[in-house]
Design goal:
The structure is a homodimer of 112-residue chains. Chain A has 112 residues and is mainly β. Chain A has a single domain, classed as Jelly Rolls, CATH 2.60.120. In chain A, 4% of the residues lie in helices and 49% in strands. Chain A contains 1 helix and 9 strands. Chain A has a 5-stranded antiparallel beta sheet with strand order 1-2-9-4-7. Chain A has a 4-stranded antiparallel beta sheet with strand order 3-8-5-6, with no helix packed on it. In chain A, a hairpin with a 3-residue loop joins strand 1 and strand 2. Chain A is globular, with a radius of gyration of 13 Å. The two termini of chain A are 26 Å apart.
Chain lengths: 112, 112
């Protein structure tokens, strides 16, 4: 469920070392991702966008400006660009296991 | 040597949890940071800029476009905006200790 494998036309790896993998996501209005997983990640938006994030019958709508920073806790979901602008975002994925007990899975970005 | 303490007018914390701290850096041409330290971090540029990064008598010039991603290995340095544009950047700082033996300190961003 690696996003670069299930939706390689949308997710590309722009940097990787032993601690992080950094993905760039880019789509156009109407594009959908296939279901995929994110490890604990920080998202930095490079465009404004509006999206619907779905998993297990739940969904949330997310609207963000360019230059926003959000925590994306480990989760599985699919996304759809429901706005009228491109989505361009950077995901900084943390490779190390999270310290402490597993967190409740969340849906969509939080914090920021 | 925390950048938010030594240069609080330039560095602000935009998100923090147990795994990461995320800083936003913003300056104007001619601005200089005081010497400060970064833990292992990923930098995402939100503007194009040209800077001089200095430490221990060495310096490197860095010129980047907006939307670039670079690894900033743990290091101490000071920076100066030597271009004619604002610098706006996000730093995703990793809070956990690096796995394996300590890396050689580097000066400025690498990779990407």
């Amino acid at each position: 469920m690696d996003p670069t494998e299930v939706s390689p036309e949308l997710y590309t790896t722009v940097f990787e070392n032993e601690r992080v993998r950094v993905l760039k996501y880019r789509d156009v209005p109407g594009d959908c991702t296939k279901p995929h997983t994110h490890p604990d990640s920080v998202m930095v938006t490079l465009s404004s966008f509006r999206r619907r994030i779905s998993a297990g019958g739940r969904n949330v709508e997310v609207e963000l400006p360019a230059g926003a920073v959000r925590w994306v806790g480990a989760q599985e979901h699919a996304g759809e660009n429901i706005g009228d602008t491109e989505t361009v975002s950077i995901f900084v994925e943390l490779k190390e296991p999270a310290p402490g007990p597993p967190a409740e899975p969340t849906l969509g970005p939080t914090g920021g």
